[in-house]
Write a structure and sequence with these properties.
With 292 residues, this protein is mainly alpha-helical. It contains eight helices and three strands. Helices cover 70% and strands 10% of the residues. The longest helix has 31 residues, at 5-35.
């Protein structure tokens, strides 16, 4: 069975994330063997953690892409929300650790010396280029599909991108001017950005798991379509919820009871098509009632 286009895009972003993390692990392993620098070892540990998170995210996307079955009549897309919530918690914890480490380094009586700046800059520049390409692709996919897993994974790599750029700057400043505090300042800014993004994504995933209604703009857009649809005498009980990147819509429409079943069906089917055209990620169920 062919996968829907959104699922293909989500999976492409997930697999790209795994490939990127594996590439960075291999690159930093080589750098560690060449330099023996603890700073490279710390960066290697971070990339190894990235790889584990990306593998978990890819697994969630694969599971979420499974079609509905007898046990999961509405599909498996809630797996995306579970994975996104887990990623958000991990990212939030990571941001707290980064803030603590940066403050401790800033308060240290003497800054830790940086070594092998030239090789470190080369490795980190390569990491910045590769990570930037991944973040751009994940951003396009998340915008098109609305996947919280892809958005959370993008936030994670975006959080890596900022300190990596800061690391290049700080290594250059250390090599050229002996300045060794810039990386801590950059780390504080990156950690604040991570925490803000993690809270936003975590809240969205939690709301979806608790069956909170869809975005108010989506609800109002559906109402606007139904409000002016030909043949409708009205509508009521518009209910929505989200699961992963899907929006589930239930809508009762009021029709003329004297018209034929064929005419009533055509009106309902046309309205459903219009909603799906406006919101391709939606799953729409329309109930037909007789207008009073």
């Amino acid at each position: 069975m062919a996968l829907p286009q959104n699922n293909k895009l989500n999976l492409s972003a997930g697999f790209a994330s795994v490939a990127m993390a594996a590439t960075l692990v291999a690159l930093k392993l080589w750098a560690l063997s060449e330099t023996g620098a603890l700073s490279v070892a710390a960066s290697l540990a971070d990339s190894a953690m990235d790889l584990m998170i990306s593998l978990a995210a890819a697994a969630a996307l694969i599971y979420a892409a499974k079609p509905a079955d007898d046990d999961h009549a509405f599909g498996h897309t809630s797996a995306e929300d579970l994975a996104a919530l887990g990623q958000a918690v991990f990212i939030l914890i990571s941001s707290v650790v980064i803030i603590w480490a940066a403050v401790a380094r800033l308060r240290a009586p003497s800054p830790l010396p940086l070594e092998a700046e030239g090789l470190g800059m080369a490795v980190m520049t390569g990491s910045v280029i590769l990570t930037s390409l991944l973040v751009i692709w994940q951003g396009r996919v998340a915008q098109k599909t609305g996947s919280r897993v892809v958005a959370a994974d993008r936030l994670h790599y975006l959080g890596d991108l900022v300190p990596n750029i800061g690391a290049v700057v700080s290594l250059w400043a250390s090599q050229r001017f002996g300045l060794q505090m810039i990386d801590s300042i950059v780390a504080l800014g990156a950690a604040a950005m991570l925490a803000f993004g993690a809270i936003k994504i975590g809240k969205g995933a939690f709301d979806a798991l608790m069956d909170r209604r869809a975005d108010p703009h989506v609800v109002e857009g559906i109402s606007a379509i139904a409000r002016t649809w030909p043949g409708l005498h009205g509508f009521h009980d518009l209910k929505t919820r989200t699961a992963g990147s899907k929006v589930f819509v239930n809508l009762h429409i009021e029709l003329d009871g004297d018209q034929s079943l064929r005419q009533a069906h055509a009106i309902g089917a046309g309205l459903r098509r219009a909603i799906l055209e406006a919101y391709p990620q939606a799953d729409v169920i329309i109930h037909k009632d007789v207008a009073r």
